[in-house]
Design brief:
The protein is α+β, with helices and mostly antiparallel strands. Helix 4 packs across helix 5. Among the domains are: 110 residues, no CATH class; 48 residues, no CATH class; 41 residues, no CATH class. The strands form 4 sheets. A 4-stranded antiparallel sheet has the order 7-10-11-12, with no helix packed on it. It contains 11 helices and 13 strands. The C terminus is likely disordered.
């Protein structure tokens, strides 16, 4: 019996993979005698015999138009998808994705767990209201402003995107599954904290004056995301100079092959023309010791050592800040006693321990407190400021 596959799902047991596979589009004819299936596949002259338990033939139980939603198959967006069909099988639920191609309509089927229907977040009233507000703001710009066509293309907002989180006013919950961090570019404790926060939250803002390491933080952020073979990173800016700066730093350190400096037509053409050279750089890197893979335990040990160094650097910075304050106090002291600084303290003060100076400071503070009370007409029989706060 001839078979076209439309409206039917045929799954065959794959012994090697130990799972059912979709064979619907490979089948030319299918017959069943009550015990066995006789199936002839495209390009084969003779049919193959299958026991009944190794073949599942199912009809769809429901269907759904995609509308303005997005279909993701195994994590990859299918922008051409138009309709879904759902099947209930002995191997679990399956979903068929219908999509358009240049040669006409087509379809493929997958276990339902591998297909995601990502609804347009703009369907939420709050988000659509805010997007309407932003649309009015953008339309107030001049007609040739590049924001206008860019915003006009923003008809779909992914529910997992940072934009959806921002518009919904949702709490920024931290992701505790972040892997051990790597730092192929120089860093410090504050930059490490910023990197950790950026990787564990959907939205992050890293601010700092020039020279505080924002570029290095971006480079380390790219490096940590690029460790995941399925992940991608988009570096965007209002001008090419900022993006080119990041690309230049990656190239300078031998990692330019991971980046695609796109933009206008000329930049895209230049990128495609350089693909052969980048592939050679990638192969050279993969053969180098720098491409060595480290386990989580090794990274955890190295990370602990790096944290220890960062803590020392932070402590040094705090000590330098304290030293600056002390030097400033010294300048003020010398300005008050320019002729004979030693006259402010007895000669024996040079040999005083630190505890003696603390006692002197406490006595001076108490003396100042009593003087202020006398000037205010208050009794001075309280021994300390603490007693005054507790008694009044």
């Amino acid at each position: 019996m001839s078979f076209d596959g439309e409206g039917t799902l045929v799954l065959a047991w794959d012994k090697k993979a130990q799972r059912f596979e979709d064979k619907t589009q490979d089948i030319v004819s299918l017959d069943f005698d009550g015990r066995q299936y006789s199936i002839r596949f495209r390009g084969k002259r003779f049919p193959f015999k299958y026991n009944a338990e190794n073949i599942l033939v199912c009809e769809p139980v429901s269907s759904q138009d995609i509308g303005d939603a997005l279909i993701e198959v195994r994590g990859t967006p299918w922008t051409a998808a138009k309709r879904l069909e759902f099947f209930s099988t002995a191997a679990g639920p399956w979903t068929r994705v219908h999509y358009d191609t240049q040669s006409g309509p087509a379809f493929r089927s997958y276990p339902t767990a591998e297909v995601r229907y990502a609804a347009n977040a703009r369907q939420q009233p709050r988000l659509e209201q805010l997007m309407g507000y932003f649309e009015n703001v953008v339309n107030a710009h001049p007609a040739d402003d590049p924001l206008r066509p860019a915003f006009a293309r923003l008809r779909y907002v992914h529910p997992d995107s940072a934009l959806a989180t921002y518009l919904a006013g949702a709490p920024l919950t931290a992701d505790s599954s972040v892997r051990e961090l790597v730092f192929p570019f120089s860093s410090n404790m504050s930059q490490k904290d910023a990197l950790s926060s950026a990787l564990s939250h959907p939205i992050s803002v890293i601010e700092g004056p020039p020279g505080t390491g924002k570029t290095q933080t971006i480079l380390n952020l790219i490096a940590n995301i690029a460790r995941d073979p399925s992940a991608t990173v988009g570096v965007v800016s209002f001008n090419n100079a900022a993006v080119d700066n990041i690309y230049g730093k990656l190239t300078q350190h031998g990692f330019g092959f991971i980046a695609a400096p796109l933009g206008n037509r000329d930049r895209k053409a230049a990128f495609l023309d350089g693909q052969t050279a980048r592939n050679a750089e990638l192969m050279k890197f993969m053969a180098s010791p720098e491409a060595q893979q480290f386990g989580d335990m090794e990274l955890a040990t190295s990370s602990a050592r790096v944290n220890w160094v960062y803590e020392l650097e932070r402590g040094v910075g705090q000590l330098r800040a304290t030293l600056t304050q002390v030097e400033h106090e010294r300048e003020l002291f010398l300005a008050r006693f320019p002729d004979s600084p030693s006259a402010a303290l007895p000669a024996s003060a040079e040999s005083w321990p630190a505890s003696k100076f603390l006692e002197l400071l406490a006595e001076l503070e108490l003396s100042q407190f009593r003087r202020s009370r006398l000037e205010s007409g208050l009794p001075t029989w309280c021994d300390s400021p603490c007693e005054v706060r507790g008694g009044f």
